[in-house]
Design goal:
Length: 340
Amino acid sequence: MDSKEAIYLYKSVPTEELSKLANDITLKNYSDKIFVRGLLEFSNYCGMDCLYCGIRKSNSKAVRYRLTDEEIIETIKFGLDANIKTFVLQSGEDYNYNVKELSKLVYKIKKITGSETAITLSCGLMNKERYKELKDNGCDRYLMRFETSDENVYSYLKKGQSLKTRIQGLENLKNLGFEVGSGFMVGLPGETIETRINNALLCKELELDMIGIGPFIPHDETPLKEEDSGSLDTILRTTALLRILLPYTNIPATTATGSIDALGREKALSCGANVLMPNITPTKYKKNYLLYPGKICLEESGFECISCLSGRVESVGKKISYEKGNSLSYSIKKIREKRQ
Ligand code: SAH
């Protein structure tokens, strides 16, 4: 389906119908499989001051933590025992890690996990040389949301930073051969339906391998505390639009979506999403990675998170897959490259 047709549907068709269309595409390309990624939030130190984020530098009430390499390795081993083959290590922009340390960490992890697993980092914007060093040391994938395609809103939210620089970062990652993930928040102040459509079109233009979207949820200790949250209906419609525009991309049902509605993730899995990310961060740290209030699964261990998710997946007639779960769009790109 071309983009014009998809946008027409997004604007005019009821959510249920749109979801069915998106779910049919997902079933055709991924059957009933839901890929699992173990999410490890390894540091909440952040040098950035994004207006929306609960771990922004100027939130002096945030309790800061950083896992030791040993704690990280232990958590990864736990994940491997639970059959997880993809690990996503996320942090704030923690300048305590220089590229050598982060690369060493990736190298150590990869040595334990081997080539049948994928390591994803989500640590914010870096220059091309740093990304290259991470890739050379075994990092397979990188996640970095562009947050919004509206340049003015972006630079307002990120205190003068430029969207173009972030997008250049995503291009650099792609050129270095990473599987690249990005995405955006839904319901940011000043957003319109056109913004969301442009967000989705930007995802397509960037040929993303993964796209994570979630509702914006206002955090009390940020300048946006009086704003409204994004709505579940908008998330579901936008997830469906993304699936229609990008049939071969991995799309997670995100924790933020599960945080605004008890069945948010199940609903997202029924309208285009095909990935879940159980939070395997050690329980004692989880509650401090508070990007937004009301975050779910804070009291549960990683083990409980994984077993809870399988029930949720079955409730929508799908099943958890413990494959490495490369995005089909990435595999297609690789085949094309080999042919040329
Ligand atoms: N430092 C990394 C990780 C950022 S946190 C980076 O820059 O990519 C991961 C994501 O959480 C952000 O990209 C943002 O989309 C989301 N997030 C942050 N604050 C939020 C809020 N208040 N509501 C919903 N999502 C939020």
